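anyone seen this seq b4? input:
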Amino acid sequence: MQEKLYFYYTNDLHSNFDQWPRVASFLKEAKASRAETNESCWLIDIGDHVDRVHPIAEAFMGRANVALMNDVGYDLVTLGNNEGITLGHDELFHLYDDATFQVVCANLHSMNNDEPDWLQPTVNIHSVGGVKVGVIGLTAPFNAFYELLNWHVAPPYKTLEKYVNQLKQTTDIIILLSHLGLNEDQEIARRFKAIDVIIGGHTHHLLRTGEHINNTVITAAGKHCAFVGEVMLTWDHTRQELVKKEAYTTDITHIAKDMQTEQNLYELEERADEILEKKIVHITSPIEIRWFTDTRIMQELTNTVKDWTKADCAMLNSGLLLDQLPAGDVTYKDIHRICPHPINPVVVELTGDELLEVIRAAFTKDFMELKLKGFGFRGEVLGRMLFAGLQVETDMRETGEEYVRDVTFQGYPLESDHIYSVATADTFTFGRLLPEIAKSETKRYFLPEFLRDLLADTLRDKFGDES
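predicted toks r here
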């Protein structure tokens, strides 16, 4: 006799709630149809469901995301870095207190010697026919951030070595929920042949029909839940072994929405508006935002970041601020609207030569007009860089291209080998946007504050008029 086991999953929603009613519709129908035929079915999320770019996620600090997953009927989830490092310690500690699903993540640990009640390293589940499935979760080890929030993420491979052998002894099938990214998933499949399925996320890769490495099928469903993933496993009870592994993804962008979920989101948005309507400051004149021109608000924000971090100098790109502020009361909702990014301040150490190279790169047309997606940035283009603590003089070439003519610090040219502490957005410590910053051996991140928290301080201190 053969039995089919069905696993439906989502990954990397990033609080894209416009798509969520379709997700709810698809998953509710899938679960109901399997229940009607008495087949085993589980709903799973692979993390980064929460993203504080959305007012609902911001107002409820992710708790509304959990409530929405409860309503759909999820069974298992693991954590992404957006749950892990964009919330304060206590906010993450209590994020899943009201979850009706199980949370599995084997490599996340509290440094306060007190683990959340909801956190489990592995979970054992059973099919209708008695097949034993062991599920383990892993999240990406961004410990430079996690440890500032009193969490630690253990190395994934060492964690797997500890738990996979245990699961082999007690289960028939092993499934890994991996918020590590495709490259890591592929390497895990090469090293750990006992893992039958890796359901992945984090790097937003879409595997339409799965990828097979050794004994493992790897799958993932892209980003923002335009696709929902499905894994179908066939267990032969006579032979007592798994005889077939299939993985698919389904485009759900055109299916009908679940109307109850639509109503829930409408009510959550109204409540979020009430929470975020707290007045921050009153301004008597509108504040202009420009991405390719120096503006007072960006200059003052850059000054604030320099002073707040106690760095020698600071640099911020104008694309961080997305819209104007009209005269009148400015609320936290306004600040979130114009600066929605989950970006933290960071201080890096650069030599004078490295700093000069960074400044030159920032004035190139390619840099300023780059339409960046990811690394915490939720804007349109990077925009013009502004500086505090540095005097940057530029000129124009005959081609109309701007270039850096001179840079001074406290009235003197930058010294080639002198070490300068530079405050900026943590975006630039990732990838290859500004290699000198990404490669800096000294990076000091500031958490849990986002740049918008310093924007609120800047508005209060430099633009407020309470008269």
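DSSP finds 15 helices and 25 strands in the chain. The domain at 2-271 is CATH 3.60.21.10 (Purple Acid Phosphatase; chain A, domain 2). kinda curious what u guys think
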